[in-house]
Amino acid sequence: MSTALPAGSRAAPPRYLTKSRFKLALECPTKLFYTGKADYQNNSLDDSFLQALAEGGFQVGALACLMYPGGTEVLDRDHASQLETTRELLQQADVTIYEAALEANGLFVRVDILRKRGDVIELIEVKAKSYDPVKNGDFLNARGQLETGMLPYLQDVAFQRHVAALAYPQFKYRAFLMLADKSARSTVDGLNQRFRIRRDGHGARIEVAPGTAISELGAPLLRAVPVDSQVDQILSGELVVAGKRDSFAQTVARLASAYRVGERIATQPGPQCAACEFRTGEHPGGRAPRSGFHECWSDAFGWKADDFGGGTVLDIWNFRKKKDLMARGVLKPRDVTQEDLSLDDPHPGPEGLSIAQRQWFQCSGKWPGNDSHYIDTAGLGTAMRQWVYPLHFIDFETCAVAIPFSRGQQPYQTTAFQFSHHVLQRDGRVEHRTQFLEAGPGVQPGVPFLRALRAALGSDNGTIFRWATHENSVLGQLVAQLEHATPPPGDAAELKAFVESITNRKVDGRVVAGPRDMVDLCALAQRHYYHPSTKGSSSLKKVLPALMQSSAHLRALYSQPVYGGTSAIRSLNHKEPVAWWAQRDGIVVDPYEMLPPVFAEFSEAERTGYEDASMSELRAGGSAMAAYGRLQFVDIDERERQAIEQALLRYCELDTLAMVMAVQAWQAWVIEAGHSEAGH
């Protein structure tokens, strides 16, 4: 019987259980059924390039290869060719292979670096993750168990060794995790600019500057950590998947079989479902794309579309006993009791809302007063009377660059590359006064950032606001970096004194606050404002849309084009006036959704050449980090660079404007309630 395919047809690609699919299955085996199916929503499809760009995965991989020179990269496109090339290379007594392909029993892996010396093969898995030799040690916790945070990486290596031993049982194997060594410091300048990224129709590839050799890289920044004992522990142990406990080998075989034939392994829903990527925002109701999350819950609990309307207990903000609730069959927030939340009194006290009280507001849908939201005007008024005008609002954009800019720096050291600064005067006038962005390739922005911030905030003694703790933490880290700068800037002492004057820090176990210690608006929102659309969160991205819905004052202020251009409120980036309050189909529009696409000013033909899924919009912090990575490491032309920089500036500007809007809305409610909000 002939097995030849009809003319013009192709064999279906083999359905291998790869290491990424194995990782997915350990998170939830039902995901194996959803993954790769075009009719299911998958929120992680566009994340891999963004994540690698933001975390430095491309550069770390290239640097690792330089540490094992003379290797051959397997560049074939299809599985069969990759396997054949690897098989031929392994015929050599000694060989180093980048991206070696191994297959056995329906399992398939690409090994980052495979080094064969005689009958011993080293499997080196490279991860864009930091490693502290003192804190991480052998990846064991105090109870002698593998650290939860490192377990997925160790299971990844174990899966590779399992496949390798099945494919080539004649060899002995050693396993390593190659990680960025947090204890190391670069001894050369400009190292990260030796690794540039190019994208083409086949994806992204790294290009190393010509002439770059291991001797030019300075002190090693990556460390190959032996993990044989940890891998042995995993391979000889058991895994529990969908309630069934089996050996590692039996579990892998079961998962491989299920994926190969398209079997759906049903899993009992639990807290892990909160991070499910196969999820639409609401029940699709038969529309495409399908939602794996909703199908799982419908199958397990018999839910219909209406059952999802009030959310699930997974949506309860900052609640850590969701597993206990689900074990008792409590699945909907409305079924949660005060006792479940350990809540004695649902009424806020003089210090504002407690965490449990916010959770109760979310679950019960009830709060003091008859408004669509809760506002503690007395508490806010008390806080406002401590403020000194003019009020300053700042927001930072930062990232942690894997490979340092200059000597003396460590891997994944915080890099502050941008800030925005709004000012609110006592008479209500608002202006976008200053901003900073330094994204030139290879330029270390830390010291210029601090100098610009000092100049922006140093002209008066007004209260400074941040949203959450990020800005305080970043400034502390930048001061620590000054101490290791080689050579240190001449104004290091002045910069340190400035930072200490506007931040708080721990000294000998106690908190020491500077005279202008920044006020945390996020903490004020958490204690004194609640809107059901935030689902308990006090994140700025949740609070701003809620305020736009609930504040008549913001509607009156911003429903007209009063921001930017030659209008009442000065903007450094918006050349045409903007009305930030708008409705679409009767729903108030989130201002962040009003930010224009990155390449909005390009023609449709031009956008086709520039725009891709990773950089079409810039409306979140993760995208900002990826945008900075693109400006640093991807070869782009000047026009694209300018478009991305303008998008970064507009995004960060909206963050500080959103903080201004929050204060304006709160002030209006405080005054309306008859409380004094006057500051100094």
Can you put this structure into words, describing what you see?
The protein is α/β, with parallel strands linked by helices. The protein is 35% helix and 18% strand. It is built from 21 helices and 22 strands. Strands 1, 2, 3, 4, 5, 6 and 9 form a seven-stranded mixed beta sheet that branches. It is globular. The model is unreliable at 1-9 and 606-615 (pLDDT under 50).
Summarize the structure.
The chain has 680 residues and is α/β, with parallel strands linked by helices. Helix 3 packs across helix 20.
Give structural attributes.
680 residues; five-stranded mixed β-sheet; 18% strand; seven-stranded mixed β-sheet; 22 strands; alpha/beta; 21 helices; disordered N terminus
Q: How many distinct beta strands?
A: 22
Point out poorly predicted stretches: 1-9, 606-615
Helix and strand composition category = alpha/beta
Arithmetic mean of pLDDT: 91
| Molecular shape | globular
Supply the number of helical segments.
Answer: 21
Distance between the termini: 92 Å
> Level of helix content?
25-40%
- Fraction of residues in β-strands: 15-25%
Largest sheet: 7 strands, mixed
What is the CA-atom radius of gyration, in angstroms? 28 Å
